[in-house]
Structure formats: structure tokens, C-alpha cells
Design a protein that fits this description.
single chain, about 200 residues, alpha+beta, four-stranded antiparallel beta sheet, 4 helices, about 25% helix, about 30% strand, elongated, PhiE125 gp8 family phage protein
Length: about 200
């Protein structure tokens, strides 16, 4: 089965925590540096939680308008696990092999990213088709982001602010004018990993 996630309307920012929040705690930081630290921290949180990348490799827990394309569905398969972008919000359209499905033909579990096929009696049944396309909203508005995700991001940014220039866990790469930074997941402390565990791909039910 092949699954593609295509973001049509990206989040205005991929920062899980506003820059102003870190600057309030570290007023000595340059705002540009604070934003870069928070972006790296946001990326790390999303990486560890297995947030699905879009067509450009970007990940976020924040609200975006997306299209999901699934090909090669096994006949009789139970619920489909959608790319890990939770919560699954409003679904505006679903087509199966080019035929639009009615709202009574499916059921979604927003916090598990599961999509069920329903029979005429409204009971779960197996999928019968090959190509599925969904148009929908996924993710949280910035003000509604779960505190555990925001606090994990802020904790990483605090650590980086305190250890600037000597954090061996920080990884960076550059391609032309594009640069990304993040912390290697295996260097995150146990408390942080425990806080993030409920939000990891496939873990929320």
C-alpha cells in the first residue's frame, strides 16, 4: 500500500511554541536565535513522535489543509491508519476509485488517525477498492496545542539556549540556502520521552 500526504495549505509557522515565550524566560537571547532554537526543538518533537512528512519533508502538529492519497488497499482490510497527523479534523471529501463516498459510508477516529469503512447498516466492514483520496484538515490550532507537546518543545529550546555552542546532541544539515537543525532522538532524556510517548505515531487511541 502506498500513502502520500500532500499539504495544500501549510501552517503559517511550524513553531510549536511562540518565540515570545522563550524570550520571556531568556531575554538575553537574540529573537532570531530564539526562533531558530524553537524551530529545531519543534522539528525534534515531531520527528520523535513520527509525525508524517509532507511532499516537501516538513512535519508539524499544527493545523494544515491536506490531501491524502492511498493506493493498493488490500480488499477486506480493516480500518486504514492515515499518515500520522493528529487530530484528524474536518473531512471535506472522500473518493474511492473515483466515486465520492457519503458521510454515512465511513467513520474516523480523530486521535488515532483511523478511517473505518461502514456498511449500509452502519457497521464497520472491509474496504473494497484500490485508490482512496481524502481532503481534510489535520492538526491543532496553535492556541489548542496539548501542553505536553509545547512544554517538550520549550524544554529542548531552554536546554539549547543554556548550552549554545556545546550541545553534542544537536544535529544540523545544509543544502544550498536551506538549513535544518534538530536533536538526535536517542539523546532526549527519559522524562521528555515519557511526556511525548502518548503522542507518538499509533500510540493515541
Amino acid at each position: 500500500m502506498i500513502t502520500r500526504l500532500i499539504v495544500e495549505t501549510p501552517a503559517a509557522s511550524r513553531l510549536l511554541v511562540p518565540t515570545a515565550r522563550l524570550l520571556a524566560e531568556r531575554p538575553d537571547l537574540d529573537p532570531t536565535v530564539a526562533e531558530a532554537l524553537l524551530l529545531a526543538a519543534s522539528e525534534t518533537v515531531c520527528l520523535w513522535c513520527d509525525v508524517a512528512p509532507d511532499q516537501a519533508g516538513r512535519r508539524t502538529f499544527l493545523r494544515e489543509t491536506v490531501r491524502i492519497e492511498i493506493e493498493g488497499i488490500a480488499r477486506g482490510q480493516g480500518p486504514l491508519l492515515l499518515p500520522w497527523r493528529i487530530p484528524v479534523g474536518t473531512i471535506t471529501a472522500i473518493t474511492l476509485d473515483g466515486t465520492a463516498l457519503a458521510e454515512t459510508d465511513w467513520r474516523v477516529e480523530p486521535m488515532a488517525a483511523l478511517l473505518w469503512r461502514l456498511s449500509e447498516t452502519g457497521r464497520p466492514c472491509g474496504w473494497d477498492g484500490d485508490h482512496l483520496t481524502l481532503d481534510l484538515l489535520v492538526g491543532w490550532d496553535p492556541d489548542d496545542l496539548p501542553p505536553a507537546l509545547a512544554e517538550a518543545c520549550l524544554a529542548l529550546a531552554r536546554r539549547a539556549a543554556d548550552d549554545r555552542g556545546r550541545d553534542d546532541a544537536l544535529r544540523s544539515w545544509r543544502y544550498g540556502e536551506i538549513q535544518e537543525s534538530y536533536w538526535a532522538p536517542d539523546t532526549l532524556d527519559a522524562g521528555l520521552l515519557a511526556a511525548l510517548a502518548p503522542w507518538r505515531g499509533g500510540a493515541v487511541v
